[in-house]
């Protein structure tokens, strides 16, 4: 299903493009553990004409370092209060800012650390580049994307076709682990991953794997669990020194490349991502998508599921719904508080 997404990044970056356009990409959080390798990969992408990078500190050094790389991509760096200038005119905004996950850190703690990032960036996007494609790396994705959506709605700048939570790392890991299991090149494995981007909300759809995954249910359960807990695997392996940064940067660069290919009107560009979803109880869900100049050209919805996958879906829905509603409630509370503060200030100035 996702054959067009499995080619290597370098092969795609270096292959000739017909009718190629160049776009402005902004990376928010570019001096962090994900932001730096992500910026490095984007500096090599021929669809990028301008790479604008932003962070709270140390960003000028990152820009100087990137500027020595012999590609034609122009790099510009912006510090703390220059976020609007960084985003101005951007075609794609990718957000890796925020605190990384640490050993023993709960999703609730990660939420408290990073929820404000979504509000600030979404507000800046609504003012500086409301037509941009906005993609979040910042975790927890299951709550961060709903926060951004609510803020954009309050600014009359929400387009569900242009807001994404990047779940590509789940797809990359699924292809890698299945490739290892089957002794195949992982680039030749297509395995859609749906649901969310945390623990059991991550659901690899083995019944739709290409090549066909003809193995025991116990093997599927074991690989599903490993895909779901792969982030913890990296956190523990790094022994407190960080989380998944290199693999996440690779996945984010691949997703941004797909967005750019869609903007460049390349046909049949497909990725899975956590996006707006038309369901009474689940307004967001990760599904396979067809990308275009509109952002999402078509949401392909739920693929066919077997019995195990349907059962897994039913089990994870309450947790995913809880995370989504938590993000929505947080955003509404903060938006209302800000509106009240602004109203009070206006009345005081009368």
Plain-language structure description:
- This protein is α/β, with parallel strands linked by helices and 350 residues long.
- Helix content is 46%, strand content 16%.
- The protein has 11 helices and 11 strands.
- It has a 6-stranded parallel beta sheet with strand order 3-2-1-4-5-6, sandwiched between helices. A 3-stranded antiparallel beta sheet has the order 9-10-11.
- β9 and β10 form a beta hairpin.
- The chain is globular.
- The protein starts with 8 loop residues before the first helix and ends with a helix.
Which features does this protein show?
11 strands; disordered N terminus; globular; alpha/beta; 350 residues; six-stranded parallel beta sheet; three-stranded antiparallel beta sheet
What does the secondary structure layout of this molecule look like, with pairings?
Elements: H1 9-14, E1 23-28, H2 35-43, E2 48-54, H3 59-67, E3 74-78, H4 83-87, E4 92-95, H5 107-128, E5 133-136, H6 141-154, E6 163-165, H7 168-182, E7 193-195, E8 202-204, H8 217-228, H9 230-237, H10 246-263, E9 269-276, E10 284-292, E11 295-299, H11 307-349
Parallel strand pairs: 1-2, 1-4, 2-3, 4-5, 5-6
Antiparallel strand pairs: 7-8, 9-10, 10-11
Q: What is the number of helices?
A: 11
Determine the strand fraction and express it as a percent band.
15-25%
Largest sheet: 6 strands, parallel
Total strand segments: 11
Distance from N terminus to C terminus (CA atoms, Å) equals 60 Å
Summarize the structure.
With 350 residues, this protein is an alpha/beta fold.
């Amino acid at each position: 299903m996702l054959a067009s997404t499995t080619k290597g990044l370098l092969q795609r970056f270096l292959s000739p493009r017909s009718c190629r356009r160049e776009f402005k990409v902004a990376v928010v959080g570019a001096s962090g553990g994900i932001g730096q390798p992500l910026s490095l990969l984007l500096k090599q992408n021929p669809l990028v004409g301008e790479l604008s990078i932003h962070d709270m500190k140390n960003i000028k050094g990152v820009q100087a370092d990137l500027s020595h790389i012999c590609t034609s991509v122009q790099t510009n760096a912006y510090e703390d209060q220059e976020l609007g200038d960084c985003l101005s005119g951007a075609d794609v905004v990718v957000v890796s800012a925020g605190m990384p996950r640490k050993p023993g850190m709960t999703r609730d703690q990660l939420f408290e650390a990073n929820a404000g990032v979504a509000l600030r960036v979404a507000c800046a996007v609504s003012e500086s580049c409301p037509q941009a494609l906005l993609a979040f790396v910042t975790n927890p994705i299951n709550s961060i994307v709903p926060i951004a959506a609510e803020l954009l709605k309050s600014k009359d700048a929400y387009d569900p076709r242009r807001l994404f939570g990047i779940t590509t790392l789940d797809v990359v890991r699924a292809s890698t682990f299945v490739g290892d299991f089957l002794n195949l090149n992982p680039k030749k494995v297509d395995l859609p991953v749906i649901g969310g981007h945390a623990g059991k909300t991550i659901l690899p759809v083995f019944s739709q794997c290409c090549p066909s995954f003809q193995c025991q249910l116990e093997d599927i359960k074991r690989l599903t669990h490993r895909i779901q807990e792969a982030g913890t695997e990296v956190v523990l392996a790094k022994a407190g020194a960080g989380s998944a940064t290199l693999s996440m940067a690779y996945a984010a660069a691949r997703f941004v490349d797909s967005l750019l290919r869609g903007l460049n009107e390349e046909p049949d560009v497909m990725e899975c991502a956590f996006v707006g979803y038309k369901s009474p109880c689940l307004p967001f869900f990760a599904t396979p998508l067809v990308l275009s100049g509109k952002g999402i050209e078509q949401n392909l919805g739920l693929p066919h599921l077997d019995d195990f996958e349907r059962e897994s879906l039913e089990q994870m829905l309450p947790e995913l719904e809880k995370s989504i509603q938590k993000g929505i409630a947080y955003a509404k509370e903060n938006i209302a508080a800000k509106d009240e503060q602004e109203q009070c200030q206006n009345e005081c100035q009368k």
